[in-house]
Amino acid sequence: MTNYKGPMRVLSGIQTSGNMHLGNYLGAIRKFAAMQNEYDCFYFLADMHSITVWQEPEQLRRQIFHIAAAYIASGVDPNTATIFPQSSVHAHAELAWIFNCVARLGWLDRMTQFKDKAGKDKERASVGLYTYPVLQAADILVYKATHVPVGEDQKQHLELSRDIAGKFNHDFKVDDFFPLPEPLIKGPGARIMSLRDGTAKMSKSDPSENACIFLKDDADTIARKIKKSKTDPEPLPSERKGLEGRAEAANLVGIYAALSGKSEDEVLAEYGGQGFGVFKPALADLVVEKITPIGGELNRLEADPAYLTSVLEAGAEKASVIADGVVREVKEIMGFVV
Ligand code: AMP
Ligand code: TRP
């Protein structure tokens, strides 16, 4: 469906709602930093996606700075990667409208995130919540991005982006115009689970405050949350197979592996046979060691909105040049006249 031959380009974004947590870091932001020296990378703040549900204006402003600070504190270098708010690059919204006319209702009806977020009362959900994945496709394709580092929960949205790119290429007989963007999901940390329930993903909206480790948590809070995390009475197995059916234990081992850079088998070779009385303090030390420096830097950056604003302005300017060019090409292909 595509003969795209353009350069490899990496893009991803995070909604500006809620505080960044360990799942966001391991599933997404850490990958952002890891790719920046090899590829042309665009990392944006999905502020227009966040308004698909109600946002207090003051809160939105704070959140935009929070996510920008989280990117930089986690190692994304604004001089290397391009960091910007989605809302300040107008081409995202413009291409999203065009894609609203490419995507089919049936495709959107299948999106599970809409069903989850709209809940039972879908009549009262915003129209934006429904077309959310169309805007996401525009975010990606307005840069002709080829690779998108995200956590596992975004897989279906990426498939929709590929369908939209393919249909556009096909309908307008430009089979090399848009790439079919690939999600980059694999790797440790693609799906970090709640500390209170190994079958639910770690989420900022979890009602239990002990379920989620936030990047801003201090050492005591992190240690307490890990100490209170749900486990079972068995000692750790010596091999991964022994974690089957033990979702909570598997999650803690997964977090240890992701943060230490070791494989799960290596972690189990070290801790197999030990109980959680030994493993939990070791995990807490590791999480504190890796996360509290990021939290400290995050706090420092949030206290400097002038610096963050200058980063976002420069990023928006750079991103706009590319995005505007792609929208111009799209409009010409479609028959718009100026
Ligand atoms: P969200 O906070 O839902 O806007 O997600 C922002 C990014 O973090 C996306 O790439 C998600 O896939 C990723 N993410 C969110 N929660 C988790 C989790 N529990 N485990 C791994 N990745 C996650
Ligand atoms: N939907 C993504 C999330 O909830 C955020 C997002 C918006 C995104 N646009 C994107 C991610 C484009 C990757 C590429 O996390």
Biggest sheet record: 3 strands, parallel
Low-confidence stretches: none
Total number of helical segments?
13
Query: What's the CATH architecture name of the largest domain?
Result: 3-Layer(aba) Sandwich
Percent helix: 40-55%
CATH class type of the largest domain: Alpha Beta
Q: What is the strand tally?
A: 5
Number of domains: 2
Task: Sum this structure up briefly.
With 338 residues, the chain is mainly alpha-helical. It is 52% helix and 7% strand. It has 2 domains: 9-190 and 305-334, HUPs (Rossmann fold, 3-Layer(aba) Sandwich), CATH 3.40.50.620; 219-299, Tyrosyl-Transfer RNA Synthetase.
Task: Describe the overall structure.
The protein is mainly α and 338 residues long. The chain folds into two domains: 9-190 and 305-334, Rossmann fold, CATH 3.40.50.620; 219-299, Tyrosyl-Transfer RNA Synthetase (Orthogonal Bundle). It is built from 13 helices and five strands. It has helices at 22-35, 47-50, 57-73, 91-100, 105-109, 112-118, 127-141, 155-171, 219-227, 247-260, 264-271, 276-302, 305-334, and strands spanning 9-15, 40-46, 82-85, 147-149, 182-184. Strand 4 (147-149), helix 8 and strand 5 (182-184) form a beta-alpha-beta unit. It starts with 8 loop residues before the first strand and ends with a helix. Tryptophan binds next to strand 1 and helix 7. Adenosine monophosphate binds next to strand 1 and helix 1.
